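User: Structure with guanosine-5'-diphosphate, tokens only please.
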Amino acid sequence: MGGASPSPRPGPSGLPVVAIVGRPNVGKSTLFNRLIGQRKAIVDDVPGVTRDRNYGEAEWRGRRFRLIDTGGLVPGAESDVEAHVQRQSQLALAEADVVIFLFDGKSGLNPLDRDVVDSLRGVGKPVVFAVNKIDSPARAAALYEFYELGLEPLLPISAEHGSGVADLLDEIARRLPEAPGGEAQPGQAEGPLCIAVVGRPNVGKSTLINRLLGFERSVVAATPGTTRDSVDSPFDLKGEPCLLIDTAGIRRKARISGRLERTSVQRALRSVDRADLVIHILDGPEGVTDQDAQILGYAHQRGKAQLIAVNKWDLMAKNGNRSEDYYRREVYLKLPFLEFVPVVFIAAATGYGVAKMLETARDLLDVYRRRVSTSLVNQALRRAVQAHAPPLYKGKAVKFFYATQTGVRPPAFTVFVNFPGAVPEGYRRYLAQQLRQELGFAHAPLRLIFRARREERKGDRR
Ligand code: GDP
Ligand code: GDP
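Assistant:
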């Protein structure tokens, strides 16, 4: 990266980004929920995914920003998931304009805190330090050992009770970069679309990528311990310039097969992080495995456009006992949260189905970036609610006031509602499905964000 001046570098939504970091259990999620108030994006329950970055939006004295809650910085992380969480925290740091570092005032200064603080000095971002769980004046004595670290500013807060949080927000707001040209313009000038081809070892990723690129690319041997784990190739998707993220072209020398599986999942998750569209390859004869569900669930949670390509369909056709419709139903039965994702059938080795797969990919990327007018969104919302009303909440009607599209890549809708926390998951899915159908977002992942109107928010405080 060039040594340019610290210019405003807004996140994908166009808003500045604030990341909350700190060890597990210091209260990051509690603070995250408090800062975003009732505006929490409802995230699906996804199998196989423990904790990841959590995104939300917050506002303080008229400044809006995007907030990232990280899974926690764990030096020397061991398990697959821990290592991934660790990596996510680093990504969050890289993305952030301002960092909130949380200490735990209840358990006291932890030796690991010093290491993390040291590592933060290197990132060159403004950091606001806070000691959490200072719930009462009596607890304030716990602050002194943290003062020893000589960090500035260092604020006592209670994420649970809210004390000190306004001061914390003031310190953050002071450090936010100027918003470029005022209001956010999501989805603009974000560089080429990235497509990742992922799947378990031997499902046919290399075969497919060779076919897509039209030549045998050589397999690059990655040195263990280097960060290089994919090669990007420019790729023309029916007139749309894309980058193909190729993890299959890298072979690591893995001695134990367990390790091969593990690094392959990690690599898949990393390419998912960078992708707009994920082409997930299944081995036709084998079907959906737990690892597939884990990667698919992760990509879904990250709001990626996804396409499932069932490969080696030549073998299935030969055995002749399963139709595409039957297979597709089985996939959806195993992955009910992905019932809107297209499932296509290919034989990478012969080229069967590949042209159709690319057409589906192209259509999907178009809707992934699609924007519709607020009036259309509201008509669709009204029709959906009329056709099927939401269940009562504590005996009261849940009312949807209006909705508007607030993002692309993935398409996001903010829906104003009297009780934002009272919309059940099933109803959220119903609404998403209706908006998908009515507004031409077929096959796209949609984010629905339920918010209270200002009146309700004021009402809550009374
Ligand atoms: P994370 O792992 O850093 O995201 O931490 P969580 O937000 O999940 O919180 C860990 C635990 O600390 C939970 O039991 C919280 O209820 C508790 N906690 C969070 N904030 C406070 C606080 O301000 N005071 C007290 N006493 N407990 C808190
Ligand atoms: P990767 O590990 O996911 O990159 O998988 P490869 O592309 O190396 O393919 C693994 C094996 O599956 C190789 O032996 C391929 O020849 C075979 N294969 C790939 N695509 C097909 C296909 O469409 N049909 C059949 N029958 N075999 C395939």
